[in-house]
Specification:
Strand 7 (198-209) and strand 8 form a beta hairpin. With 305 residues, the chain is of the alpha+beta class. The N and C termini lie far apart (161 Å). It is 50% helix and 22% strand. The chain folds into 2 domains: 26-119, no CATH class; 125-256, Immunoglobulin-like (Sandwich). The longest helix is centred in the last third of the chain and has 54 residues, at 251-304. The strands form 2 sheets. Strands 7-8-3-2-9 form a 5-stranded mixed sheet. The radius of gyration is 38 Å and the shape is elongated.
């Protein structure tokens, strides 16, 4: 009985072991090679040695023949120049066209190298300091600022910044970054004192799109209308505008406060006009008095003669 159970158990194990082979589930070495030996994975599955890489490609050259673009790109990216030279010679021998792929890969890597070089080739003193173009809007709880990495809104800006630093404080926003526009090294320096306090912890800042940076500043005092973005002591830069698209989103809640603000501004304008009129009258009376004095002097001078 025991021997019968043992036979059944052993035959069951053997059956389970043979199932994968009978169903052809185990991949062949050739299938494995086709999946793994691609140009993208080339540097991961073989030794980093150029000699080993060349001998491996030589024995599997037919698999890499149809992958000329990705192989050339990978070998250039990993700076495997001797291996690249061998591979191009093999492609040439097999009559495979590769010059266009080589040109594309080289131009891509040269552009990347050139961009890195331009970002780091200038010293601090060589950069021209520019206050970047910006626009702003507000809701009753937040202030929104978008900075464009250019000196004007309608001019092309820097697409990539080097050493970008952002600093938020209760009453200030600061952004500094470096870039090269054309051949001109530029230091973007956005530094403003705010009209009122913000909640630094709840405020956010991020790259909104290529060449642009956005601040979502949470007002410390909620449900509060700001007359201006910047402190009264600061002069408004000529390249700072109202962010009309953002302003339209919150137009309804701001309308009442803007109307009140408009009325106040009209009052201020009328007061300044009245003051100017008074000053003009004073100046006129002063000039008349001066003329009278001059006439008196001229009369006394003629009598003395």
């Amino acid at each position: 009985m025991k021997s019968l159970k043992l036979k059944i158990f052993s035959s069951l194990i053997l059956y389970l072991f043979l199932i994968p082979f009978s169903l052809n589930l185990t991949p062949s070495y050739q299938d494995y090679a086709q999946k793994i030996y691609t140009c993208e994975n080339l540097t991961k599955i073989v030794s980093k040695s150029n000699h080993d890489l060349i001998s491996f490609m030589k024995s599997n050259i037919t698999q890499f023949k149809s992958q000329s673009h990705s192989c050339i790109d990978t070998l250039i990216k990993y700076a495997k120049i001797p291996v690249l030279d061998f591979y191009l010679n093999e492609l040439c021998t097999m009559g495979v066209e590769y010059k266009e792929n080589l040109e594309i890969s080289l131009n891509t890597i040269l552009t990347q190298i050139n961009d890195v070089y331009n970002k780091h080739k200038y010293s601090e003193t060589q950069y021209q300091t520019v206050f970047p173009a910006s626009k702003w809007a507000q809701s009753m709880d937040e202030v929104f600022i978008e900075v464009k990495f250019a000196h004007r809104h309608d001019s092309p800006g820097c697409l990539e910044m080097k050493n970008l630093k952002v600093e938020l404080k209760e009453r200030s926003v600061k952004l500094i970054g470096y870039c090269v526009l054309g051949d001109v090294p530029i230091k973007m320096d956005f530094d403003i004192k705010l009209w009122n306090k913000i909640n630094v912890k709840e405020s956010k800042h991020f790259e909104s799109s290529v060449g642009r940076y956005q601040f979502n500043l949470v007002k410390k005092k909620k449900d509060n209308y700001w007359k201006k973005l910047m402190d009264e002591k600061m002069t408004i830069p000529t390249n700072m505008r109202v962010w009309f698209e953002m302003k339209e989103k919150y137009q309804e809640q701001l309308e009442k406060y803007e109307n009140d603000e408009f009325d106040e501004s009209i009052k201020e304008m009328m007061e300044t006009i009245e003051q100017e009129e008074k000053n003009k009258k004073k100046n006129k009376t002063k000039s008349k008095n001066k003329k009278k004095k001059k006439k008196k002097k001229s009369k006394t001078d003629t009598t003395d003669l």
